Amino acid sequence: MALDRWIALVFVGVCIVYGYAAFFTMDQGLPPFMQRNPVWPSTFPKILSVAGVICGMIVLLGLEKSAVEKEPSATDINYRRLGDYNTWSAVGLLALMVVYALALRPIGFIASTILFLSLGGVILGERKFHILIPVAAVATFIIWYLVQEVLGIFLRPWPFFLA
């Protein structure tokens, strides 16, 4: 089986587990007044899980491919040559995402987001630090302002010892 089908199989499995959680476990603790609402907190996860299973099954069954089987092109993923791709960049970004999620509370949103965007740019190959760091800082402050002030959702901007 091709690599894209293996990935689709894992994706369908994740969507099924996510759908099980959305359909059977998320709505049990709702208060009575919310149980009469047409849209529940689990509505969007239910839609996402069903759409994910459908999309994954399309790839898994090969319905997205044309009827005429053609020779693989240079842009297709060849699982025998995974070492030729930038897999370490992808693994580095995934590790950086985990570190970012763990660092949000201790060092605050602003510092962790600036570091995440800057280090992510470095991992992806950006070397113009005089552009990278100001863009990361401006983007971080804009996102913080929109979430904090416009949406009214509290984000701890600074480290816990400064609050």
Report on this model:
This protein is mostly helical. Helix content is 64%, strand content 0%. The chain contains six helices and no strands. It has helices at residues 3-25, 32-35, 43-61, 87-107, 109-123, 129-150. Helix 4 runs antiparallel to helix 5. The termini are far apart. The mean pLDDT is 84. Pfam families: TctB (PF07331). Keywords: Membrane, Transmembrane, Transmembrane helix. This is Tripartite tricarboxylate transporter TctB family protein. It comes from Gymnodinialimonas phycosphaerae. Residues 6-155 form the DUF1468 domain.
Using brief descriptors, characterize the structure shown:
163 residues, mainly alpha, 6 helices
Task: Give the structure's gist in a few sentences.
Keywords: Membrane, Transmembrane, Transmembrane helix. With 163 residues, this protein is an all-alpha fold.
Low-confidence stretches: none
Distance between the ends: 54 Å
Largest sheet: none
Helix-strand string = HHHHHH
Q: Helix content range of the residues, please?
A: 55-70%
Question: Overall mean pLDDT score?
Answer: 84
Query: What is Rg?
Result: 21 Å
Query: Given the C-alpha coordinates, what overall shape results?
Result: flat
Strand content: under 5%
The assigned structural class equals mainly alpha
* β-strand number: 0
Number of helices: 6
